[in-house]
């Protein structure tokens, strides 16, 4: 909020900043340059593709320089890196194959369990039928025995 005197705050006084117009212009120009350098720095930090290209170029330069200094060491490191990547890919593939086999065997196991459960249920039904048949035969035998006993008595 501005005051009638033109100051942005009531506690601003004219004696704090430079009063000479050339000094004020120089101060403004210095502030602009500072602001421009800050904006440039921020835009450089936020430009990720350019930073990635710079990092790749630095890595490439370092690799070329290292190769020029000691070619066998770089070749050995490259071979070790290729071997490591190959080993990691092989282990990943093996792990995935084992997991897939476990899933398949898990499905087969579940199917075998279901089949065993069905077989147990069928066996229980057969046992119940057999018990009923034995009980029926026992009753029939008892009746037959009584009839024979009556015949013998008569």
From TrEMBL:
Residues 130-154 have a biased composition (Basic residues). Residues 119-129 have a biased composition (Basic and acidic residues). This is LPXTG-motif cell wall-anchored protein. Keywords: Membrane, Transmembrane, Transmembrane helix. The chain crosses the membrane at residues 73-90. The keyword Transferase does not apply. InterPro entries: DUF3618. The lineage of its organism: Bacteria, Bacillati, Actinomycetota, Actinomycetes, Geodermatophilales. Residues 1-27, 119-154 are annotated as: Disordered.
